[in-house]
Amino acid sequence: xxLKIGLIGLGRIGKIHYNNIRQQxxxxxxxxxxxxxxxxxxxxxxxxxxxxxxxxxxxxxVVICSPTDTHASYIEQCARAGKHVFCEKxxxxxLARIKETLKVVQECGIKLMLGFNRRFDPNFLKIKxxxxxxxxxxxxxxxxxxxxxxxxxxxxLKSSGGLFLDMTIHDxxxxxxxxxxxxxxxxxxxxxxxGGAVAEAGDIDTAIITLKFGDGSMAVxxxxxxxxxxxxxxxxxxxxxxxxxxxxxxxxxxxxxHAGGVQSSLPLHFFMERYTAxxxxxxxxxxQAILEGKEIPVDGMDGLKAxxxxxxxxxxxxxxxxVFIEEIEV
Length: 330
Ligand SMILES: NC(=O)c1ccc[n+]([C@@H]2O[C@H](COP(=O)([O-])OP(=O)(O)OC[C@H]3O[C@@H](n4cnc5c(N)ncnc54)[C@H](O)[C@@H]3O)[C@@H](O)[C@H]2O)c1
Known about the structure:
The protein is an alpha/beta fold.
């Protein structure tokens, strides 16, 4: 049996999922797509209105890749129409809205998966396996460096929810995932150092966030919206029995030694190049979960918890103090 999919939002991430399903997941088929721009020039399938797509009797599941502020209403609409959903992160910007949406999802009995793709990066999967197998002992510290090559457009920034909800949300999820523990306390320091669109949108672009887990173990995340050398994605986990880390992926591994120094290639430029394997794997797992009745690997509660940590980070930054997760109203 083939899973029939409708895809909403054909921007940067929508195109990745569209091409992956069409070219690399034979167990699924994209039946229709929808984008408010009505630009379907890069698609081979029908472009239709989103309401029509969600109501389509020939569609079993919907992949939502439209801007963040549309996610909750599309998920609810899909749930009521009995369609399973894969939705890009974050679930929504409001915790109250997320709660409402998850209630609808539960009542309608559909499956919902969140696009925390980094969990499925082959490098981070190795680290996760080392932690789970106890090879690092008791994990005590996680360090995540997550820097973009350049800030997004002003339009994107305006509906993104800001740095913590849009970008650091991946790192919050990764910290929870690698440690296998829940965050209890958050402290965030942040600034606007790149100016430009970020300043115009009233957002921040640089941050250091420390997370404390219930058993005293910690994570530190550093973010920037502008790393001039490309996408900087590194992770280290340190524990009672050892340490493991992941450096940046590069297009090639050559190293050139000469009298002036030592040179190698820059990191893969951005998420489209760096996380190729993870986007494919998460979509394969979504399709399998539905076709084979398997568990969804990243669910609505993971989406909610990441937003709670993001809200705690915002509160911490604004009030310049550590914030307990319990202080965040759900
Ligand atoms: N998992 C990841 O690594 C990752 C990476 C990038 C973006 N995202 C998330 O994916 C979402 C989209 O981001 P993007 O970078 O692709 O944005 P984008 O601006 O490149 O694309 C968004 C697309 O949605 C369309 N659109 C706008 N409003 C719509 C609506 N109401 N209904 C249908 N289509 C609509 C736009 O015309 C555009 O084509 C965001 O929520 C973002 O947080 C996730």
